Every structure is written in structure tokens, then in C-alpha cells.
Amino acid sequence: MNLDFAPEDNAFRLEARAFIAQNYPKILRDKQDKGEALTKEDYLSWHRILAAKGWSTPSWPVELGGTGWTATQKYIWSEEQARADTITILPFGVSMLAPVLYTFGTDEQKAKFLPGIRDGLVWWCQGYSEPGAGSDLASLKTRAERVTGDDGKEYYIVNGQKTWTTLGQHADWGFFLVRTDQTAKPQSGISFLLIDMKSPGIEVRRITTLEGGHEVNDVFLDNVKVPVENRIFHENQGWTCAKALLAHERSGIAGVARSKRGLERLRQMASTEMSDQGATLLSDAFFKRKVTELEIDLTALEFTELRTLAGESSGKGPGPESSILKIKGTEIQQRLQDLALEAAGHYGAPFLGEAGHNSGVGPLHSLDTAGDYFNGRKTSIYGGSNEIQRNIIAKMVLGL
Ligand SMILES: Cc1cc2nc3c(=O)[nH]c(=O)nc-3n(C[C@H](O)[C@H](O)[C@H](O)COP(=O)(O)OP(=O)(O)OC[C@H]3O[C@@H](n4cnc5c(N)ncnc54)[C@H](O)[C@@H]3O)c2cc1C
Predict the structure, then answer these.
(1) Does residue 126 have its Cβ closer than 6 Å to ligand 1?
(2) pLDDT digits (tens, 9 = 90+) for 146-198
(3) Fewest C-beta in 10 Å: which of 97, 100, 120, 302?
(4) pTM greater than 0.90 (yes/no)
(5) What is the CATH number of domain 254-397?
(6) Contact 119/200 with Cβ under 8 angstroms?
């Protein structure tokens, strides 16, 4: 694979870099530097700035708001965002729901929902997992019964519980998998519904994560009334949408550009002197070997991601290879967090769980290493656990 950048790609890189430098909100930068929690408005502010520039949805079809960038330009854009340590646009609307909408939705559904996603006006959450249905997602029990309302219109009445709903406390809308046929085979009786999170009967309850943050929730649905026109694709065929969405979710988790930036930061951390003899952790052969092994694996992953991006540019959706990206990407993220905590040494220990970050003792680079480490345990679980991804690779790629 030729990785030389053409002059127009280098020009694009400079344009992207300058745009971020001129437009990234200072208030966000300050909060990130201090490790402060971001509000809903903080998350959406960068999204809206990108939307105004026409850059919030690079992978969408051009006629719907995509940028028409080549695979190389998309790669450069993710590199430049990671380099500048911008926050990432949340994936739930832009890269998870939107491809389902523009592939399976009606023209009315596309017109109603895509602009709000593109412009960062509507916050979406994902209602897939349930207490008894995670890896075995098709065993989900949340049920939707079809009724005719007093107004003569058709509705689904939804009852059940979803769990691990990421940032559901901020969500305006959610995309949910519900069971519409109790008698069919598990995968055949599921429908894909869009639900207004302000609907009566929805309750969102906090789950506190290991590092003390509020990132995930339980969502309870008690007789929630959902218009039938909010169903995407056919009744009982929501599994088709569900699978397409999961492939997009997985390939987005790899985070190669962010890990490259993380590796740079790790090297800087490990290059500071540990003692008055001038020794650095990076001069320790054992530690250096771990960093180098990580770099080799990250480079290999980068090439795999580039191949996937090239395939997507030629119209192929992400296939089972997204499982490879997910496994390797999240393993690398966790190894980076392990090594960062090792590099922080005892400064990684002072840790205020509720605030979600460390108390400010020790060098700046050690702040958040423990929080990141604890929070990062999730990555090998969410988006379908890595064990399940291995099963998918065995079946779909290796044909076992
Ligand atoms: C931080 C976080 C955020 C999340 N956000 C969302 C969200 O926004 N929306 C949403 O719908 N879901 C979300 N999830 C849920 C996530 O998709 C599930 O946690 C995941 O699919 C695993 O399901 P489970 O937790 O029920 O574990 P289980 O399915 O009970 O699995 C438990 C263990 O058994 C292993 N296992 C299970 N079956 C097999 C098998 N067949 N072969 C080998 N090993 C197996 C698993 O790998 C795992 O290690 C989130 C999860 C986390 C941790």
C-alpha cells in the first residue's frame, strides 16, 4: 500500500490543522486540560462548529451532507483531530444511526431525522442491551405491542428495560431494538424503533462506572407510546438494521489516530527524569520493549484500518473485518492505559472517584491516568465484547 501523500492531501492536512487551531473552542480546551467533566452543550458545541463548516458527517453520502473526502482525507482528518486532542463527535447519531437511516429509512424519515444529526441539534442514545441480553442480543425481551390509538393512528406500546445506555441522561431521542413478535425465532421478531426520550413512561437511572463517572444508565420503559411511523424498515426485520449498525459501531471503536497520539504522550511521560541520577523510565529496557511492541501492533492496525477505509470509499460497508479493528484497537487502548499508569507511578494513585479525575497531586501528565485506566476497562466489553468478536472472525472470516 502506498502511503505517500499527494500534494493535495498535504494541502488538505494544512487546511484541517488551521481550521482546528482557529475554531476549536477555548472553553473546551481548558476543561480538557483540567480534566473537568464536559456538559451536553460542550459536546455539541464542537459538533455544531464542524456542521457549519460542512465537516460533521464526512462519511455520509454527499447529497445528504457528506464531504466526499477520499479515504486518505478521512484518515488525515482523524489524525489531525487526534493531534489537536479535540473531543470526538459522539458516534450514536452520526456514525451509528445515520447509516441505518439512509440505507433503510423512508424519504420522510431521512428528511425528519438526518438534518438534526448532521447539525448536532439532536442527541441520540442506543437502546440495544438489556440485563439479560448483551452478547446474546437477539434474546432481548423489551416488547412492543401494536395498537390503534383513540386518534385512529397506529402506535407501539413499549415495555421493558435497557441497560448500559451511554450518555442516555442527555439523550433527546434513542434508537431501540424491541420484540414485536413473541412467537417467531429470536432474530425474526425484532423491530427497530426511534423513541423520543421525553415520552411519558421513560425513566433514565444512573449507573456509576469504576472511575466514578456518570457515563452509562439503565432506561426503563413503562407503556411508552411510539408512533408506528417511527419504525425503521419492516416490522420484525429490525435485526437487519441492528447488524448493519453494529458493524459501523465496531469499526469506529478502533481509535487508531487517538492511540498514536496517546503513544506520543506516553513517550513524553516516560522521558521525564525519575530521579536525580537522570534516569528515565524510557531508558529502562523492559519498559522500552513494551512501548516498542505496542508501536509495532499499532502500526499493523493502522494499515488494517486504511484497508477498511479504502474499501468503504469504494462503496463497501464495513464487514466482519470491523471485528478485527475492534479487538486490536481496544487491546491497544488498554495497553496504553496500563503503561501510562505505570509511567505515572505513585502519582497515579491519588484519585477522586466522584470527580472522575485525580486530585491534582503530582505532575500534570499523571492526572487522569488512574481514571482513564479504570474507565478504559469498558472498551473490550462495549460494541460487542472482544470474545464475541473473535467468534465472528472465526465464523465469517476464517469460515470455521
Ligand atoms: C461502558 C459501556 C457502555 C455501553 N454502552 C451501551 C449503549 O450505549 N447501548 C447499548 O445498547 N449497550 C451498551 N453497552 C453494552 C454492551 O454492548 C454489552 O455490555 C456487551 O455486549 C456485553 O454484554 P453483557 O454486558 O450482557 O455481557 P454478557 O453477554 O453477559 O457476557 C459476559 C462475559 O461472557 C462472555 N461471553 C458471552 N457469550 C459468549 C460466547 N458465546 N462466547 C465467548 N464468550 C462469551 C463475554 O465476552 C463477557 O466476557 C455498553 C457497555 C459498557 C460496558
Answers:
(1) yes
(2) 999 999 999 999 999 999 999 999 999 999 999 999 999 999 999 999 999 99
(3) 302
(4) yes
(5) 1.20.140.10
(6) no
